[in-house]
Amino acid sequence: MKSTAKIIGIALVALITGFSLGIKEGRLNLADVQSAQKLIGVSYTDREIDTLLTYLERNLKGYDSMRAYSSNLHNDIVPPLYFDPLPNGFELNQEQKQINWKLPENVSLPANPNDLAFFTVAQLANLIKNKKITSEALTRFYIERIKKYDPKLKAVISLTEDLAVKQAQKADREIAAGNYRGPLHGIPYGIKDLFAVKGYKTTWGATPYKDQVLDYNATIVKKLEEAGAVLVAKLTSGALARGDVWFGGKTKNPWDLEQGASGSSAGSGSSTAAGLVAFSIGTETLGSIVSPSTRNGVSGLRPTYGTVSRYGGMPLSWTMDKPGPLCRSALDCAIVFDAIRGKDQRDRTTRDVAFNFQSDIDLSLLNVGYLVDQFESDTSDNGVNNDKTLDVLRALGLRLKAVELPKNIPYNVFDIILRAEAGAFFDDLVLARKDSIMVQQDGRSRANSLRQSRFIPAVEYLQANRHRAVL
Q1: Residues with catalytic function
Q2: 81 pLDDT exceeds 90?
Q3: Within 10 Å of residue 2's Cβ, how many Cβ atoms?
Q4: Is 224 helix (H, G, I), strand (E, B) or coil?
Q5: pLDDT at residue 278, rounded to an integer
Q6: How many other CB atoms are found less than 10 A from the CB of residue 345?
Q7: What pLDDT digit, counting tens, does each position of 295-345 carry?
Q8: 40 sits in which H/E element
Q9: How many CB atoms lie within 10 A of CB 249?
Q10: Dihedral angle, C-alpha 64, 66, 67, 73, nearest 10 °
Q11: Distance of alpha carbon 62 from its chain centroid, rounded?
């Protein structure tokens, strides 16, 4: 019985996933399909299955044929099917106005030099613009903090010291010559190690890629360089953008070293909170900016899909990935977002949209919706903080409105989209069985998630996208 079950199991994998077993013609039989259909919740008669076998054999040949050309699929090749989150008839505002950031004035260097690590970007910008500190001095200050504290935090994968010093010295020369680019000029930052930086490894936090070098700069890196920002570190990501565990260990919450930093923008959240960088860049597909911001106590902005280019970043889900800033304040998030947003010809999902930030808006004019059922059902320790959040918003004069998501949407199906798209991008990794050398191998690990993606039918992936359109 065991050997029979094993044969059926192997055939089942061959049918659903298309893994080649080295068998030539007649790879499939009635029993294969009878077992496989249980995985996808369908039931065909034996006669119907018999008529399917020729089609299924043809599919398997097609899978083998595609895999022979897998080297053509470089990192930046995206399926030509683009998700548009805009409701029908929704018009984007493209009238960009001049932004008055109203940065703090008369900022002084702190008596305790270590306090400088917890200044906002807005405060640091005032110091640099008024030549109270040089970019090089500030950059070396952060580099020393990284060297001192990161051995405990495990938030940095690559210290980009040589690049940072050169960029800081350039910023100082430009500022001295009267060429001040704006509030990010000379400000040191870190970026999640999903993004390509020329001359440095881009490891994606995972053992199979720990020596990978992508010899070009991601669009977001280029935009920040154009704004005059200084890159001091590539920051940890949970392996292939999952959690806070990477091939070098577990990134820690600086306020509680017994606790992980959450993920997957773990290094971005931890390093910003600890004052190892003035701000950082993370990515979010399903909570990976919001979660580490909450865990580490920083301000995170998960931008609207399509406002920030992903070119040069590791895809996890082509239709869900969103890069964004993690900072010390909402104002800092706005400053960074303004520098990284915009249309990019290398990322066809991006579009030009106005960002008319107003620092002096009358808050009593704003309506803020909150999901009342989610707040009321949260009985964890977070529930107390949730209530405090609403109290603060009311005290600021904002008008809170209790709202509910529609009841007729299968929300739990949307993770299928993420898992199917991730499985497609990392298909070569799984077929080569290099997923097995990743650090985590439990039921909720990225490696296991990639393996199960082969069992998601294309029909269900498309149906999930149709339900997303309804939402």
Answers
A1: 192, 264, 288
A2: no
A3: 6
A4: helix
A5: 98
A6: 9
A7: 999 999 999 999 999 999 999 999 999 999 999 999 999 999 999 999 999
A8: helix 30-40
A9: 12
A10: -170
A11: 32
The helix (H) or strand (E) run that includes residue 234 is strand 230-235
CB 261 within 8 A of CB 269: yes
Nearest CA-CA partner of 188 in 161, 215, 212: 161
Is the N-terminal amide bond of 264 cis, ω within 30° of 0?
yes
DSSP string spanning 250-315? E-EETTEEEEE--SSSHHHHHHHHTTSSSEEEEEESSSTTHHHHHHHT-EE--PPTTSB--TTB--
- pLDDT recorded at residue 20: 41
User: Can you say how many angstroms the Cα of residue 24 is from the centroid of all Cα atoms in its chain?
Assistant: 42
- Of residues 236, 138, 149, 233, the one with CA closest to residue 184: 138
Residue 4 is predicted with a pLDDT of: 43
DSSP 128-163: HHTTSS-HHHHHHHHHHHHHHHHHHH--EEEE-HHH
3-state SS class at 326: strand
Could you say which DSSP state residue 246 is in?
A: E
Looking at residue 26, its pLDDT comes to 67
Those residues with Cβ within 8 angstroms of residue 297's Cβ, 6 or more apart along the chain or in another chain = 255, 273
Cα separation, 116 vs 111, in Å, equals: 9
CA 178 to CA 105: how far, in whole Å? 19
Contact status, residue 120 vs residue 107, Cβ threshold 8 Å: no
Quickly list DSSP for 365-419.
G-EEEEEHHHHHH--STHHHHHHHHHHHHHHTT-EEEEE---SSS-GGGTHHHHH
Strand partners, 38: none
Quick one: how far is CA 72 from the chain centroid?
Answer: 25
Kindly report, residue by residue over 369-392, the tens digit of the pLDDT.
Answer: 999 999 988 877 778 888 999 999
CB–CB of 332/367 below 8 Å?
Answer: no
pTM: 0.91
